[in-house]
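We emphasize that the prediction below concerns an isolated chain of 313 residues; any contacts that depend on oligomerization or on bound cofactors are therefore not represented. The input was used exactly as deposited, without trimming of termini.
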Amino acid sequence: MAQSLALAIDLGGTKVESALVDPDGMLLAGTRFRRPTGRDSDSAAIAASVESVVRDALAAVPDGAEIAGVGIGAAGPLNEQAGLVSPLNLPAWRDYPLVELVASITSVVTDAPVTMRMDGLCITLAEQWIGAAQGAQNLMGMVVSTGIGGGLILHGRTVSGPTGNAGHIGHVQVAGFVDRCACGSIGCIEAIASGPNTVAWARSQGWDGSTGEQLAAGYAAGDDVPRRAIERSGRALGHAIASATALVDLDLVTIGGGFSQATGDLFGFIRQSIDERHEFGFVTKVKVVRSGLSGDGPLIGAGALVHRAELLG
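Result of the prediction step, given as a token string:
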């Protein structure tokens, strides 16, 4: 029997990646490819990067294997039904027909279906499949990095909503904050607690560093501004998670992404905010844990769109 593989694609604000994913959620060695995207890239350049990684992945399919499907995880917002993407950090793409582009390339080799979901939902699928949320039926997966994204699985099935943007926790507002967000609003958790925005707040307080890594080092050294900056972001994250839990009654939240690794204390600050809802046991019961995945999570989740399609709502 031919080996059944998913062609997984992850489109983000700085890069697009592809890989072949097997039915156990493993990336095949030597099949991962990356090309740049970026806020300053024009539409043709982004499309060329997507085409390049898709063609590279197709060329890497082993003899005797077959592509069972193509899964795309894309930064939002998007239009799931129409196959269109408008990533906030890729201004050159607004209502861009990404599914059509990918299908036009893959159809030369395979007639396998192309499925697209928001990248946060793909990460949530990956966590439930082989990560820190195995067995969980009511969960949110989050990424705290350059931006903040998320996805929902409720009663064991994904929830994407009529446009595909359900679970976009990064643009839930947190009371008491007025940080300006790229989406046009103020007080969004992404504007407060993403890596770059936490650094920006620290700089506004007189800190002279410029990266999340430097901020983490300052925190570890006991420097005042980095400590206040990370505590501020952690508590804001906790408020957002508590609000999401109050809305949909979550049991588990997994958090990954580069900035989530700044310090283990970040999770303590998150917990403090959640536990302030002491009269609401259905909120304080939520567990918040580190991601069980490496940087492969987005691609594994895109592969899950093919291998675990029965969970798609």
